[in-house]
């Protein structure tokens, strides 16, 4: 009996002991957890302090830059305030990162991929041979077709090359390259837009940068306010192009109003404002112009936005109105009709408006860009083309096709992200860059 009592007491002792140990371990784990959380919080705080100290200087610099850029309360550009012509973006002040980068791509550098897909492959086709056999002539035709020149353009080039070589008796690579160069240059020269000498002289007066910024090709300087309408499919680079053109115009000392006419896409106004902010902030000096955005609240009709923007531009004496439009596919006939309506509505205020309609095309689209050019030009009688993203494309040959088959001049080209990378189209320099 004594043994049984002794055994029972030992069992209770073990139970209490296990309970006590479990309790102690639990408390210890809880204390450890609290300490570890405190340690993590202190570590984060200590890591944040140097960063905060570092960013304080950066924030101070940014605040100083913002003040220099004249960012007033109007800079916020709230949609509800748009009836007062939107939020002004003063043109004087600190240059944003986009404009401070000094390196701008040279044209041959930007067209490396296009040159490789055309000139490089033609050169490889010849190799060390002095002439091409009949089958190799077919290979030459294939090279041209796959360079996105367009079927009619390829045939025109081949007809010229072989007819000329037949007359001269030449057969080598250099002769083929020379005649392709001559024919392409001729194609571009036939659509080169005539310049209004007096308007351009007046425009360039007193501006050292105006002579080579490409804007002299645009018919927007004879009227005040002049209306520039920018069209194209989504992703082609319309917003970027508008920002860069705005910057160049402001650099000439002009007042620019940008109308956010893409009412179909929710973020279009905000995206456009980022670029107009950059455009306004990139201009320095007393003679710099001004860039404002007009993005009215609760207006879903693109034509109404365009009409109101032109009204404001007339009353406030803006020099240029740039109208952004919804990115639309050339196959969407109802949306193309909306663009036609916008042109008719603008003409009610100014029968000559829009004074320039620019079609923005992505060079990466290749043959699709050629199709877009035909459809947009057929519907809107486009004045010229901005060919963007040439720096990342192997399909820059489409520029020749657009000019030859649609009859549209390439007025500006985009070869990078910086403002200076939107430049005038120089036909000879372009052909040199892809065939040398």
How does this structure look, described?
- This protein is an alpha/beta fold.
- The chain has helices at 2-68, 97-100, 107-110, 112-126, 134-145, 151-168, 173-190, 197-204, 238-251, 268-281, 302-315, 333-349, 367-380, 398-406, 427-435; strands at 88-90, 226-231, 255-260, 290-294, 320-324, 356-362, 384-388, 410-414, 422-424.
- The chain is built from 15 helices and 9 strands.
- A 9-stranded mixed β-sheet has the order 1-4-3-5-2-6-7-8-9, with helices on both faces.
- Helix 14 links the parallel strand 7 (384-388) and strand 8.
- Helix 4 runs antiparallel to helix 5 (134-145), helix 7 packs antiparallel against helix 15 (427-435) and helix 13 (367-380) runs parallel beside helix 14.
Concise synopsis of the structure shown:
The chain has 436 residues and is α/β, with parallel strands linked by helices. It is built from 15 helices and 9 strands.
Q: Total number of β-strand segments? A: 9
Strand order of the largest sheet: 1-4-3-5-2-6-7-8-9
Ranges where pLDDT stays below 50 over 5 or more residues in a row are 1-5, 45-103, 195-209, 281-288
Cα(first) to Cα(last) distance is: 112 Å
Number of helices: 15
Instruction: Supply the helix-strand structural class.
Output: alpha/beta
Radius of gyration: 32 Å
Percentage beta strand:
5-15%
Helix share bin = 40-55%
Oligomer state equals single chain
**Main β-sheet description:** 9 strands, mixed
> What global shape is seen?
flat
């Amino acid at each position: 009996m004594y043994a049984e009592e002794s055994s029972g007491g030992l069992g209770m002792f073990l139970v209490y002991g296990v309970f006590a140990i479990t309790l102690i371990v639990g408390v210890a784990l809880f204390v450890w957890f609290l300490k570890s959380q405190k340690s993590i919080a202190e570590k984060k705080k200590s890591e944040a302090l140097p960063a905060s100290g570092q960013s304080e200087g950066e924030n101070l610099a940014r605040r100083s830059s913002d003040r220099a850029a004249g960012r007033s309360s109007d800079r916020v550009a709230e949609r509800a305030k748009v009836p007062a012509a939107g939020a002004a973006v003063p043109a004087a002040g600190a240059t944003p990162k986009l404009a401070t980068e000094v390196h701008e791509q040279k044209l041959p550098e930007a067209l490396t991929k296009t040159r490789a897909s055309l000139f490089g492959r033609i050169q490889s086709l010849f190799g060390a041979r002095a002439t091409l056999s009949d089958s190799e002539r077919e290979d030459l035709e294939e090279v041209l077709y796959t360079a996105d020149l367009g079927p009619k353009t390829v045939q025109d080039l081949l007809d010229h090359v072989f007819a000329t070589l037949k007359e001269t008796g030449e057969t080598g690579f250099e002769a083929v390259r020379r005649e392709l160069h001559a024919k392409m240059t001729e194609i571009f020269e036939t659509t080169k837009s005539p310049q209004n000498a007096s308007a351009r002289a007046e425009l360039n007066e007193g501006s050292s940068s105006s002579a080579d910024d490409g804007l002299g090709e645009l018919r927007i300087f004879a009227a005040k306010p002049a209306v520039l309408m920018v069209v194209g499919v989504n992703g082609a680079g319309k917003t970027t192009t508008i920002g860069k053109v705005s910057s160049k115009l402001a650099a000439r000392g002009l007042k620019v109003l940008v109308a956010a006419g893409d009412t179909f896409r929710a973020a279009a106004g905000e995206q456009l404002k980022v670029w107009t902010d950059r455009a306004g902030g990139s201009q320095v000096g007393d003679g710099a112009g001004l860039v404002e955005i007009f993005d009215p609240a609760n207006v879903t009709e693109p034509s109404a936005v365009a009409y109101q923007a032109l009204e404001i531009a007339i009353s406030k004496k803006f020099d240029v109105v740039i109208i952004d439009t919804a990115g639309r596919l050339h196959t969407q006939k109802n949306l193309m009709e909306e663009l036609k309506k916008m042109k008719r509505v603008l003409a009610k205020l100014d029968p000559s408006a829009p004074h320039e309609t620019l079609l923005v095309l992505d060079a990466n689209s290749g043959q699709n860009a050629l199709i877009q050019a035909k459809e947009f030009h057929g519907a809107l009688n486009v004045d010229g083309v901005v060919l963007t993203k040439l720096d990342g494309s192997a399909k820059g040959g489409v520029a020749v096709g657009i000019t030859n088959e649609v009859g549209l001049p390439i007025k500006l080209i985009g070869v990078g992200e910086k403002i200076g990378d939107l430049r005038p189209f120089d036909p000879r320099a372009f052909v040199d860059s892809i065939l040398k």
